[in-house]
Design a protein that fits this description.
The complex is a heterodimer. Chain A is an alpha/beta fold. Chain A is built from 19 helices and 13 strands. Helix content of chain B is 74%, strand content 1%. In chain B, helix 5 packs antiparallel against helix 12 and helix 12 packs antiparallel against helix 15. By secondary structure, chain B is mostly helical. The chains are: A alpha/beta, B mainly alpha.
Chain lengths: 460, 298
């Protein structure tokens, strides 16, 4: 006992010495973390107290988002009545996190909860490493369930696993069309809206009208820039009334007219120098530098786009811009693609699983969902967020945030079957071969379809 | 080389045609000018990315994104460095990385010297087979050994400790190969003379071979240090808290799934490479010598 007391005193002394001689401000993340169950002594109460439980949460958030997430986690840890401590740990980007989780599953030590894309969750479930959330979800009040955008729920139900919910919406966004309003007006093009988006024919004419050339015939302004992104391609196919998979999930259904038309449009626009390809996030800079009038991108990219189109000297936006619904085959049945990751709970102990759900429930409730959405630019997952005063205030400066929110109801998930991860690469390769003129649009799509069918077969 | 060949040719030419000298001198100057022009071009190509990093570090995000890029920032934002520094626990990251890189470099040097010497100078059963096995591990991509390595770390209960960050990197097959070649080039007489004087293997290694191989050791050391300094995936896999993370994790703070803050990222990158550049400048002479002596040119 004496020894322990001495040790405690000594460590306290050392700590105070260290603190005393360190004049540098300590960043919040460097302060000692609240540790496990043993460190939090139970208050002496007569009522039955729940056992303290720690939940390790692996995520991919960086910078301001990471700080906001840490603050919210700290808030939850301080306010929850069930003695739950969430330990949020950054584990790299989605690919690095995926690699680490696969290794951790092998080692029998997965985290308690993690952020993941649908196709990754399907892989974790193949190892039976994640749990079904249905029992938890079904305990939510009916009106609370109905408040969540149905597409966000749908994407987390996995048809290959009995349509069970293996995850819950976490960082959601959607595919939208970014446009330079000034350029559109100058070219005499109608400004599209969520209610009245472009038709695909209208869009093609608009892209052509937006091209500008100088006297020597060099293009000085393009109508459209294209990145290689499978989700965007999926959006084109959906919006032309196409399907990606057969209803029985036995193979692909995209080798049909909608995809052929989508790839053929790209072929025409690139050949006519109305559109060009950009790598990485270069489209944001090109849009800001008025090199191009439109691009397809995630709604989450809007702070970066905003930075790119703000004048470096006056700090004002160089032109009017907006984001809207992608072009449609039938504007009456408008649809776009949903982006973003989910949160999934790993098979651990019932207590930890229940605690993880408590956090998810809290985090996705309207006030928290709104708070998270304002800092991170992800979409709130609940309809009632629209009535929230804080969000309404944020929308006053983030006009495009409101424009994106209004489209959530039209956003549809991509397939979450095993093997679809490979399909993404095949669709992107096909687009690249069309852009570089190596393959005819229909052939490119058919090749991608054949390869995907094989991948889906192999992943069964 | 060129000047020597000119000198050899010159007397004969002079004898034949006196007025040819100024033309020759001109040709020599032209040749030199061409060589310098090419070298300058090469140097500029190498320096430009570095220059771009440093200049972007001072720009506003708007200026960092404009095209064509401004060569000199219109406004020098020193605040980028402060903001970058505050975006992640950099002091801790720096301390971790310095410790991790130093310890693994020290470990690498010790194991490399011992193994290289054994492969070069000692005779033992299965030496060649063992050496081939060593070399074979160089061909294995990191991704392939990632999961097995992680399992070993977990089994040893080294997860989230410095041991996991350091121990796997205290052996370098490349270093062993480099140093073995060097030790093979030492004259056998040197060894024989030492043995006649009563030297053991270890004594010879410590008193003769190691001092002779300092440039090569510095090369191995720098590669090992750089490898640790730049590592990202392995530390992410085997650690979980910011308290255990290295500098490269700090650089990811400016990237997100929807875009990047290039200016602050470059400010942080500038800070992160400063120690490495300083170290290289100090050890430059030995470094170049080390590569040249072992007959490796890259």
């Amino acid at each position: 006992m004496k020894k322990i007391l001495a040790a405690v005193l000594l460590s306290g002394l050392v700590a105070s010495l260290v603190a005393g001689c360190g004049p540098t401000p300590v960043p919040p993340t460097a302060t000692p973390k609240p540790v496990g169950p043993t460190a939090t002594p139970a208050p002496p109460t007569a009522t039955p107290v729940p056992e303290p439980v720690t939940v390790v949460f692996w995520h991919t958030q960086t910078g301001v988002n990471a700080k906001a997430l840490d603050a919210m986690v700290a808030d939850f840890n301080a306010t929850n009545t069930k003695k739950i401590t969430i330990k949020a740990e950054f584990q790299g980007n989605y690919t690095q996190l995926y690699q680490k989780i696969l290794a951790a599953i092998q080692a029998g030590s997965p985290p308690d909860m993690a952020v993941a894309y649908e196709s990754q969750i399907a892989d974790y479930m193949k190892a039976r490493a994640v749990i079904e959330l249905d029992d938890f979800v079904n305990k939510l009040p009916k009106e609370s369930l109905a408040d969540i955008f149905s597409g966000y729920m749908e994407t987390n139900k996995f048809p290959q696993y009995g349509n069970k919910m293996l995850s819950f919406p976490f960082t959601k966004s959607l595919l939208s069309l970014y446009y330079n309003e000034d350029m559109l007006k100058e070219a005499g093009v109608r400004i599209p809206t969520a209610d009245k988006p472009f038709t695909w024919d209208e869009f093609e004419k608009a892209v052509m009208a937006l091209q500008k050339k100088d006297a020597s015939g060099k293009v000085t302004q393009y109508g459209l820039t294209l990145g290689l992104d499978a989700s965007t391609i999926d959006g084109w196919i959906y919006s032309r009334g196409g399907k990606l998979l057969k209803d029985d999930l036995s193979g692909v259904a995209f080798n049909a007219q909608p995809a052929y038309d989508a790839y053929a449009l790209v072929d025409r626009l690139v050949k006519g120098t109305y559109a060009y390809q950009t790598k990485g996030y270069d489209y944001q800079a090109d849009f800001g530098n008025k090199k191009v009038a439109m691009f397809f991108g995630s709604s989450t990219g809007r702070p970066f786009v905003k930075a790119a189109l703000t004048d470096k000297d006056t700090k004002k936006e160089k032109f009017k811009w907006g984001i809207t619904m992608i072009p449609q085959g039938d504007p009456a049945k408008a649809v776009t693609v949903m982006y973003g990751a989910n949160i999934t709970v790993f098979k651990t102990t019932p207590a930890k699983q229940a605690a993880a759900w408590e956090f998810i429930k809290w985090f996705t409730d309207t006030p928290q969902s709104v708070k998270w959405s304002i800092t991170s630019s992800y979409m709130p997952i609940r309809k009632s967020a629209a009535e929230n005063a804080d969000l309404r205030k944020a929308w006053e400066t983030d006009i495009q945030g409101k424009q994106a929110f209004d489209m959530i109801q039209y956003s549809r998930p991509e397939p979450n079957v095993r093997g679809w991860q490979d399909a993404r690469t095949f669709l992107e390769d096909a687009l690249q071969s069309v852009i570089s003129g190596k393959a005819a649009p229909k052939d490119a799509v058919d090749t991608a379809a054949a390869k995907t069918n094989k991948a889906i077969e192999e992943a069964k | 080389m060129t000047s020597q060949s000119y000198r050899l040719l010159a007397p004969r030419k002079r004898a034949r045609k006196r007025q040819g000298t100024w033309q020759l001198r001109l040709a020599r100057w032209a040749g030199l000018a061409l060589i310098y022009a090419l070298l300058t071009l090469g140097a500029l190509t190498m320096v430009f990315p570095f220059y771009w990093m440093v200049s972007t570090a001072f720009k506003s995000i708007q200026e960092a994104l404009i095209f064509p890029p401004t060569l000199v920032p219109t406004e020098w934002l020193w605040s980028n460095f402060r903001e970058a520094w505050e975006a992640a626990p950099f002091p801790r990251y720096f301390a971790n990385t310095t410790f991790m890189a130093s310890a693994s470099t020290l470990g690498t040097l010790i194991t490399t010297v011992l193994a290289a010497y054994a492969f070069a100078r000692m005779r033992f059963f299965g030496k060649n087979v063992l050496f081939i096995l060593f070399m074979a591990t160089m061909m294995m991509p990191f991704e392939v050994i990632l999961i097995p390595n992680f399992l070993i770390i977990k089994t040893l209960k080294w997860y989230n400790t410095f041991l996991a960050l350091i121990v796997p990197w205290t052996a370098s097959v490349f270093g062993i190969f480099l140093l073995r070649q060097f030790y093979l080039s030492l004259p056998k007489d040197l060894f024989d003379a030492a043995v006649i004087d009563g030297c053991s293997h270890f004594r010879f290694l410590w008193n003769v071979a190691v001092p002779l191989s300092v440039p090569a050791l510095i090369t191995v050391g720098i590669f090992s240090f750089l490898g640790s300094w730049n590592s990202l995936l392995w530390p992410l896999i085997v650690t979980s808290n910011p308290e255990m993370r290295p500098i490269q994790v700090g650089l990811t703070a400016f990237q997100s799934e929807a875009g990047s803050y290039y200016n602050r990222m470059m400010a942080a990158a500038t800070l992160a490479v400063l120690p490495i550049v300083a170290m290289f400048l100090v050890a430059q002479k030995q470094f170049v010598e080390g590569i040249a002596r072992t007959g490796l040119k890259g």
